[in-house]
Write a structure and sequence with these properties.
heterodimer, A: alpha/beta, Aconitase, domain 4, 7 helices, B: alpha/beta, 2 domains, 5-stranded parallel beta sheet
Chain lengths: 177, 422
């Protein structure tokens, strides 16, 4: 499975309060998929202009299929799945980082979006670079520099199938049928 | 194997597990609260399953946005209540019955040594205080736990935090935890477990220990854990009739790392400067910083010993005229005890507002939200930028004693002056 996209370079310690502020957690009607997704997409990274670890124009210019490459400790903090959902609904298809916090790591994969931790990877990318991730081979390529990197994830064997199914919930539904 | 490895091995039905191995474990308890409960239920419905795997193993606590602050929060709580009734979930804590989930789980004796607990909340780690594996997950995973009662986990290697000596008041376990975080940083324990050992931990009350397991997550850890000792056994015997097994780390257990601390190393009360819990400095370094709000409460420090030490400082005194001082007990049980001891009267007479048991201004949920540029000193566990309101507000983390002393002066203050022998 190959993911190709355009890079947004994030800094370190991007926390879940930053990704999705507490004041929006109870907003969004979870029983209506379209309303919920629109609300979650709109409400994430609401204070981005005040942060040093997220590019200022990310919220306005992010496009479907983009990929975040971040420094260490991406997604530190809360269980709030909205922190992962807002990135997905804004169009981000994968997060690559020097290191990723456990709960965010699981949440993002569960949405069908790979979260890949590879120490040192952030130094190899800048915003605007092209990136290709091959999930089954375990490789990341920078299309601008031509450099390729290998990663070895500690994830259950069914995780890539889960991504192909569209996430944990659709994957579990497919198991039933 | 270490304690956490032994629990995960047992729950996975394996003889041995190693750090970073993937296991599938049975879940003994699963907790949802109002902030993410309705989302969990929506996901569970999406799975198309009618009944949860075991209603007796699910605990539902309404704590973040209660008493409901608006129509959205009331609607979500109603959805949760309907689900609880429909599924026959006995362990339901409505407003006025429980308090903050992490406090309720421990004080009601729900979590037992050697068991597994997952919650839709990162501070689920708190329950590791009884020697359980307790950790946070998201709502999609919780929906699957509701269906299957099982969870995959990457076995965390154990970082042993060994603390010798004895903390002398007003230095408290909060000061120790901030001191530990200064060394570990906010990513020092990613995919690892923090196990606290040593004479300082042994001497600590259960309440004080809960601060350590609560804030283990702030180092990036999967969980925090302390071996159950006689104190825990006595604590639980008073709260549950369930039997439990005491598990200890093996003598030859391999730790990923051991960090040694001594209580005497903490020379003064600690304050974590915004925007990270690991930005700890001695209180004298930030003494005099103007504050707009002082908050005593949260799952970190809203228990009886926290309220007692705050009341000792506030008794017979008045808080600063321009400072909003908010005291929120962590649970209904704490509220009741504090009332009986007269602590609530002390707070109210000092000019503090006392709130009902809820998460309060620990996060941007309900009550005590900060405006632009406001400064808050708080006993909670996180001080990320924008955590409790406007993105330009600032949050300092400290012990209840330091927050109470600061409340009196309207600026960050050293509580030691209230503890000198007279």
């Amino acid at each position: 499975m190959e993911l190709k996209g355009r890079v947004w370079k994030f800094g370190k310690d991007v926390d879940t309060d930053e990704l999705f502020a507490g004041r929006f957690i109870m907003g969004g009607d979870e029983t209506s998929t379209s309303q919920y997704q629109e609300f979650i997409a709109r409400s994430g990274l609401s204070d981005v202009g005040h942060r040093e670890n997220v590019p200022r124009d990310f919220v306005t210019r992010v496009e479907k299929g983009d990929i975040i490459v971040a420094e260490e400790n991406f997604g530190i903090g809360s269980s709030r799945q909205q922190a992962a959902e807002t990135l997905k609904f804004k169009g981000v298809q994968a997060v690559v980082a020097d290191s990723i916090h456990r709960i965010f790591f699981r949440n993002f994969w569960n949405l069908g979006c790979p979260a890949i931790d590879l120490p040192g990877i952030s130094a190899e990318f800048e915003t605007g670079h092209g990136i290709v991730i091959n999930l089954r081979q375990g490789t990341i390529k920078n299309l601008n520099t031509g450099k390729e990197f290998e990663f070895h994830l500690i994830i259950p064997s069914w995780f890539v199938d889960m991504v192909e199914a569209g996430g944990l919930i659709p994957y579990h539904k497919s198991l039933k049928s | 194997m270490t304690l956490v490895e032994k629990i995960l091995a047992k729950k996975a039905g394996k003889k041995v597990v190693r750090p970073d191995e993937l296991v599938e474990v049975s879940v003994d308890l699963a907790m949802i609260h109002d902030a993410l409960g309705a989302h969990t239920i929506a996901k569970f419905r999406e799975l198309g399953v009618e009944k949860v795997w075991d209603p007796a193993r699910i605990i539902v606590v309404l704590d973040h946005y209660v008493p409901n602050k608006d129509i959205d929060t009331a609607k979500k709580c109603l959805n949760i209540k309907k689900f609880v009734i429909e599924q026959g979930i006995e362990n339901y804590y409505e407003v006025g019955k429980g308090g903050i989930a992490h406090q309720v789980l421990v004080e009601k004796g729900h979590v037992l040594p050697g068991t597994t607990l997952v919650g839709v909340d990162s501070h689920t780690t708190t329950s590791g205080v009884v020697g359980a594996f307790a950790t946070g997950i998201g709502v999609d995973e919780m929906a699957v736990v509701f269906k299957t009662g099982r969870l995959w986990e990457r076995v965390p290697g154990t970082i042993r935090i060994n603390v010798e000596g004895k903390l002398v008041p007003p230095i408290a376990s909060k000061d120790l935890m901030l001191f530990i975080l200064k060394r570990l940083g906010v990513s020092g324990a990613l995919f690892k477990s923090l196990q606290y050992t040593g004479s300082a931990i042994n001497q600590m009350s259960v309440e004080s220990r809960m601060v350590l397991t609560n804030m283990a997550i702030e180092s990036g850890a999967t969980n925090g854990i302390i071996e159950a000792d006689q104190k825990i056994v006595d604590f639980l015997r008073a709260r549950t009739t369930h039997s439990f097994e005491l598990i200890q780390s093996d003598q030859d257990a391999e730790y990923a790392e051991t960090l040694e601390f001594h209580a005497d190393d903490i020379k003064e009360p600690m304050v974590a400067v915004p925007p990270k819990p690991s930005n700890a400095v001695g209180v004298t370094e930030v003494e005099g910083t103007r504050i707009d709000q002082a908050f005593i409460g949260a799952c970190t420090n809203g228990r009886m010993e926290d309220l007692r030490i705050a009341a000792r400082i506030l008794k017979g005194r008045k808080v600063d005229k321009f400072t909003k001082v908010i005291v929120i007990p962590a649970s209904q049980e704490v509220f009741k005890s504090a009332l009986a001891e007269g602590l609530m009267a002390t707070f109210v007479e000092a000019g503090a507002v006392v709130g009902p048991p809820t998460c309060g201004p620990c996060m941007e949920a309900h009550m005590g939200i900060l405006g632009p540029g406001e400064v808050c000193i708080s006993t909670a566990n996180r001080n990320f930028q924008g955590r409790v309101g406007d993105v330009t507000a600032k949050i300092y983390l400290a012990s209840p004693a330091t927050v109470a002393a600061s409340a009196l002066k309207g600026k960050i203050s050293d509580p030691r002056e209230f503890f000198r022998e007279t």
